[in-house]
Design brief:
In chain A, the strands form four sheets. Chain A has a seven-stranded parallel β-sheet, with helices on both faces. In chain A, a hairpin with a 2-residue loop joins strand 6 and strand 7. Chain A is of the alpha/beta class. In chain A, helix 4 runs parallel beside helix 6, helix 8 packs parallel to helix 10 and helix 10 packs across helix 12.
Amino acid sequence: MKKILILGGDGYLGWPTAMHFANHGYQVMIVDALLKRQWEERMGVRPLFPIPVLRRRVECWNKTAKNPIQVKIADIAQNHLAVYELFKEFSPDAIIHYAEQPSAPFSMKDRNGAVTTFDNNVKGTLNVLFAMREFTPEAHLVKLGTMGEYGTPNIDIEEGWLEITHNGRKDRLPYPKLPGSFYHASKVADSVLLEFACRGWGISVTDLNQGVVYGIETPETKMHPDLLTSFHYDAVFGTALNRFVVQAAKNQPITVYGEGGQTRGFLNLIDTIQCVRLAIDNPAKSGEFRVFNQFTEMFSVMQLAQKVKDAAKGIGFDAQIEILPNPRVEKEAHFYNAKNSALKLLGLKPNLLSEEVLVNILQRALLAEDVDHAVLRPEIRWRK
Amino acid sequence: MKKILILGGDGYLGWPTAMHFANHGYQVMIVDALLKRQWEERMGVRPLFPIPVLRRRVECWNKTAKNPIQVKIADIAQNHLAVYELFKEFSPDAIIHYAEQPSAPFSMKDRNGAVTTFDNNVKGTLNVLFAMREFTPEAHLVKLGTMGEYGTPNIDIEEGWLEITHNGRKDRLPYPKLPGSFYHASKVADSVLLEFACRGWGISVTDLNQGVVYGIETPETKMHPDLLTSFHYDAVFGTALNRFVVQAAKNQPITVYGEGGQTRGFLNLIDTIQCVRLAIDNPAKSGEFRVFNQFTEMFSVMQLAQKVKDAAKGIGFDAQIEILPNPRVEKEAHFYNAKNSALKLLGLKPNLLSEEVLVNILQRALLAEDVDHAVLRPEIRWRK
């Protein structure tokens, strides 16, 4: 039975990923420091639906399903001895690394947000790399990066590497990055470390530069109410799509920042898990730093707002679109053409953002008993 | 009087830089945590000639010269409140940031070396950026990077940015980086942060991607014996050139790692100071992330060994060149063509590595009373 260590297994993506692999016969161990929950408290926000404590959701899984999940509470960034012990004793065949501070606004709120993000994300990655080198040099690391590392260059975005011809000579080099926040910069730093560790130590890594994920349902979350995953609609940990859905469902204007021409890659939670599974089942070679762009569709923020408005209209809600000043520093109208063929070649079958999918998310949002409207406002600004 | 804050002003480059600016009428404040001295103790190495404590070298300067240097002992990475206080009270017009762990082998010795390097270098840079944003948004940051960030790509190395044409479209993007150690990776992470801070906050930065510096004399170090700067010949903090010089002067074989085809940029300490001065006197624009490649000549390690051998022969020493296995993971024969025209356009007049310069360094090395031969051996290996 292939052993999978899931770092950050209590998170929005980590938890359904853990259940998926357990459900498909892998031996799964979750590691989490529960820092995300702590950061939520600090920022004064909560997911739309209450999430059971990790102990309870794992107990629920282990009663509901055949293949149990193991859990270890440990901070991979601050406690490297715990990381070493885990790698030594569990001896994973593959590691899925989600254990990072995931919010751009959190990283931009102040110095502490930026330093916390770097300290957690980059130190965690360093500790994982040293643990792999020491105890599992043959293991495969699947690391979650972000499409936001690339920013919005005026050329096609390739998958991690770029063939460059310059002054008559050629090389294949890491794709240039233009991160849009300290969070995105921390992911760029991670990628630099991973590429070096592959080249210098011969370990194997797949860096998944993921787009914005939507959706909260997987076959496993539906097995029991306590197995749900988190849905953040707040301005710190939520996504634009989630905010739009909650606004439409609660008869609030859908708030678009700036011109709304900001274009990004998107994918369904089900496809995130599909992609991670494809990476795990088709590992990178020894010494290979493999990068996949992990998204299925591209939309501008305005297109997304319009899609939510249309889906809401279909079930009787007449939402308006309202333009707010953009709290971020980013281009609001730009070229955007990102490649995503590698995962399709491995077999990815995209689940697209249909009206049906949006209506399903809207109907879930309608069930929410307690929406905190204050957290929808963007309070964190990139510039003073 | 222009106010210059020199972070890492106790170091090999920081100290002569501080004296230069004080000698030329700038108001200079040094900040240093003396961590480099602590790391030397931990690694069991010392500079070739004893260096007075910082208090004494500053007292000596303030007695010898007309324009005094102020000093503050503070850890810019771990004590951001001290950094904020400094920026608020001294209110520098420009900041020269040398305060980083400067050794690739130190960063590769183990997990602690890698984490210490990242924690010190990247967190220090973050604290400086936030202090600038808060207290001196108009100031100019001159940050020391390294040519080693680029690695050895198969195309010309441009100065920080690259015009890329790809699939019929064009953009000017950050030059791709291939760092050769966790130290070099930390400098790449710094560059990512600096570029983002310029773009996101509008601050102005000059990133000096410096080659390997040699030489220990400047007009100011010659003013008094206690004003000397450090000369490291050990395998942790020393450079290949310094090692070769000490080996030749002490009738030891000159040890080249691997084929010796590793080619790098080099410059004289006098030119480092000349370049930093040019950057300070011709600041980057608001919001500009300006990168200069700071070196004057390129040599392979074998060419360098041969130069030292020849210079030593000229003063009666018959040194042999010995090949040792390469402790690093790096290409030993490769294309290398790095551009360095920007600083020349600003007025840099290079002082090249002549036989006279080498003989001068050799003669200084001959005066050393206590050479620790054990520290010449490369004990830190990139691969297990």
